[in-house]
């Protein structure tokens, strides 16, 4: 198969922020792009949901670039990448002397985004204690720096993204219901790559040409067998995984025909093993029940002689990690 130029490329112009084009906008992604066009001219808060690697930041940038704020700042913060104890200062700033090591006054991301857009990536990882302050700034457009009593007013549009089920987190007590509803004014859902087989040719061609140009190479042909192998794979890492694979393929390509060389699984091993996934889910469910039973018996206590960690033969840090990964609300057992 000789690939041709992609049939569908939606490129949102970016007066102030350079943005990648949205490739292969068909099916579910077409709906997402239509949603962007509708909501971008407004100031509504947007919540983007999708698996890791589906392009949530790309959609966030498109919303900013199509909005009246496009000449203003576009500021992003990954709520999962910043330690919980530092995230408040990162978002709202702090005064000199607000805490140990605070040698100078700093400006938070909300202040930096004044007049533009703030992208809160992985908002589901926002600590519960910090959620009321985020709710306030969303509703009132005002906040105080850490260690200050002076109120700062801003004009910021918030676009948030998550790969988590926030409604389930609300039910389990990990996420405030009022904050969820305030973020979820205009939800946009991104489909995983495995549900976008019709977009595969456009995406592969785009990435092949992008990396070929960067490496001063020329890719003219994408054979049928290569495309069939790519379409057979389940892509747990979604578009990001595809991009990385094509980059590697272009590096290894010696002619004008793109080939996928080892390491590349055989087609029959590419799709997810459903029994393995089911077994993993069953084991996780059993582990969750065991930890919840230990928490109930210890009345929510983690460490100490009568704590849940000791009962389970785990260290406190290991148990805390499991509680977070399994989304167990340990606080509900303190009143039992």
Keywords:
Helicase, Ruva Protein, domain 3, alpha/beta, five-stranded parallel sheet, 11% strand, disordered N terminus, 3 domains, globular, single chain, 336 residues, two-stranded antiparallel ribbon, Rossmann fold, 14 helices
How would you sum up this structure, described in words?
The protein has 336 residues and is an alpha/beta fold. The protein has 3 domains: 9-189, P-loop containing nucleotide triphosphate hydrolases (Rossmann fold, 3-Layer(aba) Sandwich); 193-270, Helicase, Ruva Protein, domain 3 (Orthogonal Bundle), CATH 1.10.8; 279-333, no CATH class. It is 42% helix and 11% strand. It has helices at 27-39, 56-65, 84-92, 109-112, 131-140, 166-171, 177-183, 200-214, 224-232, 238-252, 267-270, 274-297, 308-312, 316-325, and strands at 9-10, 22-23, 46-49, 74-78, 93-94, 106-107, 117-121, 142-144, 151-153, 157-162, 186-189. It has a 5-stranded parallel β-sheet with strand order 4-7-10-3-11. A two-stranded antiparallel sheet has the order 1-2. The radius of gyration is 23 Å and the shape is globular.
